[in-house]
Amino acid sequence: MGEAVASVACDDLKFGLLRCRFKMENEIMKKQRLSKGWTEEKIRKLAEYHDNMTEDEQAAEIEAALNDDDQTVMVVPTELVPAITKLINKKRVGRVPG
User: How far is it, in rounded angstroms, from Cα 18 to Cα 46?
Assistant: First the structure.
């Protein structure tokens, strides 16, 4: 993340802090490859949705996910995460997220 931030000139005060932040986030997103079916707009909407949730709403969403019979939550060794992620992605081929 440091190299993307360094490539953005933020010392011009007329842009203000928010404009500078937006420029940095935009630069970082340009360097990232998005998963199939995801767009910058979809990511912004998802972030906005979660940013505007109350703690009670967040807790209820987590509780609902933990009680979903179609999903399982488990602890696995960190070194296995890439292999597990790859397997899950193979199962999702052709399916567009959300």
Answer: 19
The separation between CA 11 and the C-alpha centre of its own chain, rounded to angstroms, equals 28
- Convert the pLDDT of each residue in 13-23 to its tens digit: 444 555 666 66
Cβ within 8 Å of residue 81, ≥6 positions away? none
Tell me: pLDDT of 57 over 50. Answer: yes
Separation of alpha carbons 54 and 52, rounded Å: 7
Ramachandran category for residue 37: left, alpha or beta (phi over 0 → left; psi -120 to 50 → alpha): left
**Residue type at position 46:** L
Here the tokens at position 55 are 């703690």
**Rounded to the nearest 5°, which phi and psi values hold at 33?**
-95, 125
